[in-house]
Amino acid sequence: MAQQQVVKEERSLGDLFSELASETGTLVRQEVALAQTELTQKATKVGTNVGYLVAGGAVGYTALLVILAAVVIGLAQLISGLTNWHYITSAWISAAIVGLVVGIVAYTLITNALAKLRNTDLTPHQTVETIKEDAQWLKNQVS
């Protein structure tokens, strides 16, 4: 132990600052790598969720078009039978009703998805914490 202290005392001030600069550079590179890794993980999570949102939307849209065509036709026949209106009049009224209902549902779904995406926290908390710790370590090394 005493020998280590002697070796420490024999090192010049220039050597100590050189070692400190080297260790600080290594520390900064490690912090950048950590921040990059953490942000990549968060971006991947958001990207995956957006991908599922798009894929689900496309498949659902296709199914919805087929179902809605059937609903419009059925509603048009119902309106035409109940009111004795011409079938063309019943068809456009039923299409407008179905379109309005579907538009309300679409607005609700999109609003909820956007709210969840806005609430995604992209702050690299682990990196911020380690940078604070490293700054304190560096302050202790210099003093």
The number of helical elements comes to 4
Rounded average pLDDT: 86
Helix content: over 70%
β-strand percent reads under 5%
Computed over alpha carbons, the radius of gyration is 33 Å
Biggest sheet record: none
Count of strand segments: 0
The low-pLDDT segments are none
User: Cα distance, first to last residue?
Assistant: 22 Å
Structural class: mainly alpha
Shape: rod-shaped
What's this, in brief?
The protein has 143 residues and is mostly helical.
Characterization of the model:
This protein has about 140 residues and is mostly helical. The protein has a domain at about 50-120. Helix content is about 90%, strand content about 0%. It contains 4 helices and no strands. α2 (about 15-85) runs antiparallel to α3 (about 85-120) and α2 (about 15-85) runs antiparallel to α4 (about 125-140). The longest helix has about 70 residues, at about 15-85. The two termini are about 20 Å apart. The mean pLDDT is about 85.
